[in-house]
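In this supplementary section we document a worked example of the pipeline. Step one takes a protein sequence of length 192 as its only input; no multiple sequence alignment statistics are reported here. Step two produces a three-dimensional model, which step three serialises into structure tokens for compact storage. The input and output of this example are shown verbatim.
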Amino acid sequence: MLERLTDALTGRRLGGALFVLCGLIVAALVLSRDDGGSDRPAKKSQPVRIVSLPQLGLAFAHPRTWKRTVSGRVIRLRSPDQGTVLTFSSPLAGSHTQRVKRALKAALRKRFAPTRVVRDGPGRLGSRKVTTFELRGLRRGSIRALALVGSSAHRTYAITVLTPARPSARELAQAQQILMTVRFSKPLRAPR
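The serialised model returned by step three reads:
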């Protein structure tokens, strides 16, 4: 009996769906938690919006105050003051992390030239290990770009965080919390 339950929970579709559901519940708790250690009255928890794209095998949560736009396989989140922008995309089926990282780095360097790579190495996206790099550019004022590229067995994902050179601490914390909620699963069907 226990073996059948374990097999059912780790099956491709049900296991992936349960994994995403658990991740989203944790995301909602992380994004809505308040600072319980302070003497101030407790603030209302911030409402969150859960985004699930089963056709891409991608899910995450973000505060409702952030604006979301979708264009094809690209999702953009903008902070309330428009200073921070997160971009989520899944450009390729299969695992092509280094290829996508090279293309993304070249595109960001061209867009924000002149740029300087200030960090390049491993990072985390949700519970997954990914590769990251950070650029600083001077176009239209000083800008920072953090790129995270990771793959599942099914798709490659690229997430970019654009901020001013000195982002607000609140928006930076919210962006970090959004990145902690990202989950990958097996896509339900191949996207067009």
